[in-house]
Each structure stands twice: as C-alpha cells, then as structure tokens.
Amino acid sequence: MQVDAVLVLFCVCLAGAAGRMTQSRGHKLETYKQSRSRRETRMDGGTGHKSGSPIYKRSPDMTKSPMTKSEQLLRIDDHDFTMRPAFGGPPIPVGVDVQVESLDTISEVDMDFTMTLYLRHYWKDERLSFPSTNNQSMTFDSRLVKKIWVPDMFFVHSKRSFIHDTTTDNVMLRVYPDGNVLYSLRVTVTAMCNMDLSRFPLDTQTCSLEIESYAYTDDDLMLYWKKGNESLNTDDRISLSQFLIQKFHTTTKLAFYSSTGWYNRLYIHFTLRRHIFFFLLQTYFPATLMVMLSWVSFWIDRRAVPARVPLGITTVLTMSTIITGVNASMPRVSYIKAVDIYLWVSFVFVFLSVIEYAAVNYLSTVQERKERKLRERLPCTCGIGNPDEMMIDPQITGYGSMDANTTGHYGMPENGGRQERMLAQVALNDPQITGQVKPSRGYVNIWIDTHAIDKYSRVVFPGAYILFNIIYWSIYS
C-alpha cells in the first residue's frame, strides 16, 4: 500500500510541472505577438493596417535612370540621329576651323610630317534645339557625341592619327538653344608630304594636310572654311630645328572618286625653307677643306713618295666617308640632289690631284730612263776643261743663268744631276762628239720638265674649283 501511495504522489508532481511549462510558453508567445503588433502600429501611423489600403513602395534612384535630364531636354530618343540633319533636302553646310598647336617632325626619309591640331566643326541640327530663357549653351564630353550625328571627317593621305585621351578624351560638344553645334577635338596626325629633293639642302618644301568627309558627297554635305584663310590659326612659338616656317594658308577643292562621286576637300598648306647653316658645317666646309688639303701635294717634292701618296689617299677616303654619311640619312631617290653635285665634284678634284701625282711620277721615271740611256752613249767628259764654266756659258749651252736655276734638279740624282744634264747638252752640240754618236735632235727634245706640271696644277686646280663654287652657289642660292 505504501508503494502505491508513493507512485500516485510522483505522478501528481509530474502533471503539475508539465502544466506550469505550458503556461509559461503561452505567455512568451503572447508577448512576442503584442510587440510585433505595436511595431506595425507605429509604422502605420497608429491607424492599423486595414484591408484595401495602398501598399507603399521605395522611391526609384534617379541617378540610375537610363535617360539623364540633358538627354530628355535634347529629346535624344525622339529622333533618328543615324541620318544627317535635313535628310533629303539641300546639303548641310559644315564650317571648319583649325588651331595648329605644334608641328613636330619633318622626315625626308619617310616623306611625311607630324602635326598636332585642334579641329573644330560648326553646323546646325534643329533636332538638338531646346528651350532656354537665358540663351546659354550646354557643353558635353565625348559620351554624348556617340548618341548624335557628327560629321565623319578624315585626313586624306594620313599614315597615323589619334585623338588624345589624357586624362579623358579630348573631345568637346557644345549645343546652343537654336540647334547650332560646335564639335571640337584634339588630334595628332602623321600625313604624307611629297618632297622634291633635287635642290637639297638648299630647298623649299610645301606640305599639305587634307580634310574630307568619308561618306557624304557634296550633295549631302558642303564642307567649307568657316572664316576663309582666317580659319587657320597657328602658335607663334612653333619652330623646327631644320626648317623655317614661312607661311600657312588654306584652299578648298573638289575631289572625285569614280565609284562614289564628288567630295569637298579642305587643304592646309604650309611652306618650309631649310636652314643651310647646319649643312655648311657638316658637309660643305669639310668637303672644301679636303679639296684644299689635296692641293698641298703640289708643293711637296715629287720624290717624296711617302708624303704625297698617303695625303692623296687620305683625302679620297675622307670624301668617300662624307658622301656615305650624307646619303645614309636621305631617301634613295632616283635623281641627283644639289649636295650630290657638290660632293661628287669635290671628290673628282681630290681624285684628280692623286692622278696628277701619278702622271708626274710616271713621266719622271720615263725621263730618267732616257737620260740614263743617253749617258751610256756619251764618251767620257774628262777631256772637257772646267765643265762648270761650260755649263753656265750661254754661248755653249744655250741656257742663261736663269735657265740653269729655274730648271732645278727634278728627275736627277742629288749629286751632279744638273751638271750631267748640261754636259749631255754640250756633248750633243759639239760636232766632234756628234760625229761619233748617232745624230740626235738634241737634249731639249727628250727632256720633259715634270716640275712644270706641279706649277700649272697650283693655279689650274684652285681656279677651276673657285669657278665651280661661283656657278654652283649662283644657281642654288
């Protein structure tokens, strides 16, 4: 009985504990529902949420709208900007003006030039007109340019060109309330320049930058300089190392393509005159000095072979180096340039000075051989009393004192050369000796004064070169 009473008491205790846990859980759930109800009441302004009341949504972010306010004002989506303004009507006039910022390089080898400029276009597109109370324009960058119509200008005969993009694209679009548009961009272009180098380096070159519409003929687009020749402006600080910029000017012409038609083309012409001072120092003066140096050999004794031969060879090789250096920096044209004429004529003068010494040396050798043979055929001169007096006696030798001094001893040995020559002349004039020897026309006929060749060369070579310089500079200056 006691065991049963204990079991009944234990069951009663478990039932009481379970009831308390259920009551506590129900109280917590009711508290959570009341707090949530209070929060909803505060959000609804204390009125509570009734059936049929409007549902409030978050307002959209206007900064992320696909159409900005400016595009709405210009009505970008209301028009088809793939077509030119006034399509189907008269050609649209597009004015152009250019501000030349720099003229960077002129290359004779590549036959081109590089120029940086501001290219500005002016036209009217009524589709872009907008209402304005103060008549102020709106300025945009390159993002709006891609959404409207702009002229499709390109540079004819250009090799490379690009629009500057530091720090952003150097493009500006300005729209006025009446629809007038200004489109400006900063461009660097490398274009071809056909140069005539026949007068190089005393030449004057004229290069042209040509601007044209790529797709629109003159029936659709009329391209013109906005202010005539004043449409081209240049910076006064533009300068080149080798050229003097003489003038800029503009022209307008029509270009015809057989497959597409006629196009308006704008030209920017600029004339360049080459500075000559650099080439005088690097080319003309060294060539002239080498020619004058080759003349020094005319005053050197013809028997000084180690002195005259290296001098001639050195001047020839130096002239060859100058010619090679000049042609290395020039295009391989098929005509003769002015600098080529000067250098090659100078080279010929240097070469002729070497040939002159070769001729003198050869004739001297021939003369010595003839004198040697003559001495072998002559009898002994020991029977002649005082040969020195006979040498200077004009009645015997036929030479005066000046003749003996001016003839010198060229081609003869150092010791007794002139005396042997005079004795040979005396022997040929003596009837006793000529009877023993085969009759001869005399020594004068076999003697060639090789020293006279050097004497004439001292005058002929400088005179001819001076005459050449006078003619050359009078033609090309």
| Helix segment tally | 13
Radius of gyration, taken over Cα atoms and rounded to an integer in Å = 52 Å
The largest sheet, given as strand count, sense and whether it forms a barrel, is: 8 strands, mixed
* Low-confidence runs: 26-33, 41-53, 59-67, 387-424, 432-447
Report the end-to-end length measured between terminal Cα atoms.
Answer: 149 Å
Strand content: 15-25%
Mean pLDDT across every amino acid position: 78
What does the overall shape look like?
Answer: elongated
Topology as H/E string?
HHEEEHEEEEEEEEEHHHHHHHHHH
- Strand count: 12
The helix content, as a percent range, equals: 40-55%
Class inferred from helices and paired strands: alpha+beta
Secondary structure topology:
Blueprint lengths: L1 H42 L25 H6 L17 E16 L4 E13 L13 E3 L1 H4 L7 E4 L1 E6 L7 E5 L4 E13 L11 E10 L7 E5 L6 E3 L8 E15 L3 E14 L2 H18 L10 H24 L9 H40 L9 H6 L1 H4 L3 H7 L9 H13 L1 H6 L6 H4 L4 H26 L1
Parallel strand pairs: 1-9, 1-10
Antiparallel strand pairs: 1-2, 2-7, 3-6, 4-8, 5-7, 6-7, 8-12, 11-12
Description:
This protein has 477 residues and is an alpha+beta fold. 42% of the residues lie in helices and 22% in strands. It contains 13 helices and 12 strands. It has helices at residues 2-43, 69-74, 142-145, 277-294, 305-328, 338-377, 387-392, 394-397, 401-407, 417-429, 431-436, 443-446, 451-476; strands at 92-107, 112-124, 138-140, 153-156, 158-163, 171-175, 180-192, 204-213, 221-225, 232-234, 243-257, 261-274. The strands form 2 sheets. Strands 1, 2, 3, 5, 6, 7, 9 and 10 form an 8-stranded mixed sheet that branches. β11 and β12 (261-274) form a beta hairpin. The longest helix has 42 residues, at 2-43. The chain is elongated, with a radius of gyration of 52 Å. Residues 26-33, 41-53, 59-67, 387-424 and 432-447 have low confidence and may be disordered.
